[in-house]
Amino acid sequence: DLVLVSGASGYIATQTVKDLLDAGYPVRGTVRSADKGEFLKDLFKDSAVPFDYVIVKDIAEPGAFDEAVKGVVGVAHTASPFHLKADDPDELIKPAVNGTVGILDSIKKNNPNVKRVVITSSVAAILDDDIPKPHTYEEDHWNEYSVREVKEKGRNATNGDKYRASKTLAEKAFWKWIEDNKPSWDGAAIHPSLVLGPILQPVKSVAELNTSVAGLVNWFTGNHQEAELKAIKEAPFNWVDVRDVSLGHLRALTTPEASGQRFITSNGAVSPIDFVLSFAKHYPDRKTYPNGDAEASRRKEINAAANFYNGAKATKVLGVQYHDLDGSIKDTIDSVIQRLGV
Ligand code: NDP
């Protein structure tokens, strides 16, 4: 019952590896460097079932996963670039799409015994900016908007649309591959909103933090431009705890009814007001973050302006019971203070 986790040194992936090991599934992770692989081996050294890694330097290379897939029964494909700094959209789209198609091609070539493949998609593949906010999204929606933006504007599309197009195109490629190849295994996709919660992954500095946690930490350390501070009055996103996302992956790998399904994992709207009010509660002596008191009474109203991604199906089918926001923010910051001394 060996499970392959691609991009095992990532934020979501490290937690997913931990949950798989804790549930008794031996794990093989793919990482880009031996450094990161060794970090993970050390992190999981007391696990009752083994963790090992193989190096896959670039998921976009044809045949990158040919060796990695041998002997596994389940695959969680999480590796994909998540940053908002790409100039050429292909910096994101190529690894996202080729990595997804590539891992499926490798399975086809080298492993007839795979039972389930779960990919980490995103609400970025569901959100549709053609629809005015606030809107409630379910799993039946697709982000055609970002794909069109990138097609029409190329490098001049927004960085958000470049990332969202990469997630949409990768997931579309996944379902199309399944339709075209009719494999003996079946697929499922997990769609997190902005992921918060404790870090476990190999990072040595704040600069190396993954994009979603870095956003929260920037609010905590006060590392913000004046213009960004205005965002304290806005609610541009939904959020979910990383432990709920990793459980979603684990259950999507092991639950028969998850076959062929998309699952939003999301626990509702959040705005930076929520961040700073939690900081004030748990770290009253820190004076690095903005003061949210003035807007505290408007929290509900501010958050009501956000889109809503309905994560109820993940609760119903996968049994994901969502962590609460205040505890998740505290656990995130505690872990970053402990690991990186911010
Ligand atoms: P991370 O940046 O921590 O994880 C990304 C992982 O992908 C890393 O292991 C990274 O390797 C690997 N990777 C990226 N590009 C390549 C490449 N070309 N070749 C090999 N490996 C590569 O971020 P997350 O954990 O947040 O992201 C994991 C997945 O979750 C992604 O698919 C992302 O789109 C998705 N997601 C994340 C959300 C969030 O808020 N965090 C929300 C919704 C979806 P390395 O560590 O060596 O750079």
Automatic annotation (TrEMBL):
Question: Does the keyword Oxidoreductase feature in the UniProt annotation?
Answer: yes
DNA-binding recorded as keyword:
no
Tell me where in this chain the NAD-dependent epimerase/dehydratase domain is found.
3-260
State the UniProt keywords alphabetically.
Oxidoreductase
Q: From the UniProt record, list the coiled-coil ranges.
A: none
Q: What GO molecular function terms would the record report? A: oxidoreductase activity, acting on the CH-OH group of donors, NAD or NADP as acceptor
Family the UniProt entry places it in: Belongs to the NAD(P)-dependent epimerase/dehydratase family. Dihydroflavonol-4-reductase subfamily.
Instruction: Spell out the PANTHER family in the cross-references.
Output: NAD DEPENDENT EPIMERASE/DEHYDRATASE, STEROL-4-ALPHA-CARBOXYLATE 3-DEHYDROGENASE, DECARBOXYLATING
What's the protein here called?
Answer: Ketoreductase azaE
Species this protein is from: Vanrija pseudolonga
